[in-house]
Amino acid sequence: MAESTTGRERIVAAALRILDAHGLADLTMRRLAAELDVRASALYWHFESKQVLLAAVADRIVRAAAVAEDAEPADVALALRDALLAHRDGAEVVLSTQALALGEDMPRRRLAAALARALPQDEADGGAAILVPFVLGHASLAQQRLQAAQLGLVAPVDEHDDFRHGVEVILAGLGAPVARARQASRG
Amino acid sequence: MAESTTGRERIVAAALRILDAHGLADLTMRRLAAELDVRASALYWHFESKQVLLAAVADRIVRAAAVAEDAEPADVALALRDALLAHRDGAEVVLSTQALALGEDMPRRRLAAALARALPQDEADGGAAILVPFVLGHASLAQQRLQAAQLGLVAPVDEHDDFRHGVEVILAGLGAPVARARQASRG
DNA sequence: ACCTGAACACCGTTCAAGT
DNA sequence: ACCTGAACACCGTTCAAGT
């Protein structure tokens, strides 16, 4: 049911546009409303608070991670990272929203599912509980550093290889097979 | 030089009091100034912005991690985690400040130093680059979940064992010896 | 069902001026 | 050296009222 463009979807899409163009600090209810040619108070008919709206934005960021059904754990982790970095301040939005149990729990479930094909279920769950904080923490730090580097405040680093190495170390520690992931798409 | 209670130190201490009592959302320049019986504008003589002030707060949170010179890597990670969780919203403050290169780089250096006693220097550096995002990410998520649990929004989890397990998996993946850490101080 | 108008109780920051 | 007073340009949220 429901078209692809319900009221909430339009608002979330506008929020992502502001995020990309101006960053989280500029994503205010008033600015978002202006983007939609509406007053800020109108948004409260669709979302009960800014926090809930941000959870919906986080949801959409995470949902954009394209992962094949049978993807290797390392590929799931890389796809999640790409999705977090696809929008300015995306990692921060997802991280700050994740634990509130509002913004779905998809990253953990996808990682656990991928791990479960190589490990007993409880070890797969435990592994996901390690990979999720690593992915979110790394993406958060990487994104801040990338933005600082764009302002010339800091020397740029190759966060991508760094991230992949981390995932491989964790998988090795879990005793899971570390398949060489798809071709290196250095970013 | 400098007494233990310079102007900046007093302000940072007051900020930590507000953090503990009311959380990051209530840590405003106006409230902080009121705590010190001063107007908000006075704070700008000591700190050029709220962001820089928060970096100083993060610095102090991290510096409180008590680690012996010869501590095992796992103990350093646990001490950092304890320091982050010692103040309300502490992990978030440190995480959001860390990458700006303002809030010192101590966690990484301490972990790298501990790892360097068991691994070649470059592997120790690489290991620290994995442990730091894990520690910050895990503490951030754990702290949000703990606070949500206090509000009865979510079932409480034993984040402590979860964290230790993650550290052990990462150390195992690095090929570092995983010493059994000091007595379990389940919290 | 969806939005406006107006208000409430706030923000971070700047800067002349005081002591 | 350190602080006040006053202002500027904003915030998130509520709620009666409109269509």
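The interface with chain A takes residues 92, 95-96, 98-101, 126-127, 129-130, 132-138, 140-145, 148, 153-154, 162, 165-166, 168-174 of chain B (CB under 8 Å).
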